[in-house]
Amino acid sequence: MPLLTISAEVYGQLIQVHLDPATQFQQIDGFGASDAWRCQFVGEHWPDHKKEKIATLLFSQEFDDEQNPEGIGLSIWRFYVGAGTTEQGANSDIKNEWRRAESFLDKEGNYDWSKQQGQQWFLRKAKEFGVEHFLAFSISAPVFWTLNGKGYNTSSGAALNLQPDRYSDYADFLVSVLKHFEEQNLGFDYLSPVNEPQWDWNKPSQEGTPATNENIYTLTRLLDEKITARSLKTKIVLPEAADLRWLYKSHGKPERGDQANAFFRNDSPFNLGEQHDVMKAVLGHSYFTTWPVDSLISIRQGLNTSLKEQGVDYWQSEFCILEKTDAIGSGHQRDLGMNTALYVARVIHADLTLANARSWQWWTALTIADFKDGLIYLDTGVEGKLFDQDLLKHDGNYHASKLLWVLGNFSRFVRPGMVRVKADLKPAQTLKEQYNDVIISAYADRINSKIVVVAINNATTEKKVNLQSPGVTLGKMFITSESENMGFHKISSETITLSPRSVTTLTGNYGQ
Fold this sequence. Notes:
Elements: E1 4-10, E2 13-27, E3 30-34, H1 39-45, H2 48-59, E4 76-81, H3 85-88, H4 117-128, E5 133-138, H5 167-183, E6 190-192, H6 213-229, E7 235-241, H7 245-248, H8 259-264, E8 278-285, H9 293-310, E9 313-318, H10 338-353, E10 359-367, E11 374-379, H11 389-392, E12 397-400, H12 402-411, E13 419-426, H13 431-435, E14 438-445, E15 450-457, E16 463-468, E17 472-480, E18 487-490, E19 495-498, E20 502-510
Parallel strand pairs: 3-4, 3-10, 4-5, 5-6, 6-7, 7-8, 8-9, 9-10, 10-11
Antiparallel strand pairs: 1-2, 1-16, 2-13, 11-12, 13-14, 14-15, 15-20, 16-19, 17-18, 17-20
Helix pairs in contact: 1-4, 5-6, 10-12
């Protein structure tokens, strides 16, 4: 296999980036986001031309007449299976209507597949645009089966908020949802039945429930049995840990931590590794592990070391900005610009290259909040009522953030089935030095001999990059910066420029 050599100036020095497509790491399963909370109203009520454009931004793999991508080509779409707090109304205790969710099932046992129409609109659109993979996720059982009749937890315990004799019913409900959508040609590749089980979820701000490892084991065994019985191809994915450290440490919650060992070590009482429909991977959320940079690096290195011992794969399955940082502040106040975009790009790079994530997924695709939690930001455009929840139910403005496009620098070009390949930088820098300057990762399509390089320039200055690539042809690059949104440029010489504070994707062929 040929080597691709990139030369760049870092800290005033010329550095070489050696890319070796023959040295391969993890396969990529896809990049995604969820429909949680906002798609329910936008998909059902917003004007067609606006929601069509939003869907294009999220799902399209097409290019415009100037060869700029029309969208970010997500390859995984997460569909939120609600617990029925919308039907409860004010009795749900969840004041924010946007954080409630409908249920396909009522307490008499009747299914109504017209529920969650707005989310179903986006699900169908994702399918039409060619999104490869779909994931259904639940964060609470239907409210009429919970211990307290609510979609959130009101106890101080760690147990799943589910009546003990309703585990089988809850599993039946989730599998019935899977079966219905398969019959609509909208089948789900994955089912995630628990979400952030380490939190107690005892505030009425959204649906949610804690769960012990034993609870998860019991529910998953039932789901596995019922998925097999109904001849579905869906794989169960677990456990959506609230912090990556709970995947490989007890981290203060032994009943809810050390989950890679709990679910996939042969001698564990909760071993699920032999279950037919359970994917041998752990899903975790990168919250509270990204600052300072030393923690970003060390936690992912620790996770990777632990998972290698178990032979278990890893997905980063949810992230937005929650922790307070010196780099971009906290999650409060939306940011459509490059500050948050570059911060998240570095997290994506770390999850992919240090923790060997096979998938990377953002939290909510849309947001109406003054918060750093969306790819596309919605507002009314009305001064003093910019985030008015009632007005936004039916119409509003949408804004594509730089974060959307930076995620697209990965998601649009690094497609499912590609593999990450070796990228070495010389002269050697510490990881921390790299992470504050230029970081590069590369991915290969082994079937079509395509190669994708993603270069992140955190510096405030341009970086000259010299391409010397025997056997490798790079013809196109797509730049996201203060002035461009995955803007297309031809590569016409061996020397290119990484714009200040930018993410650049280079595409081409190898082995020819």
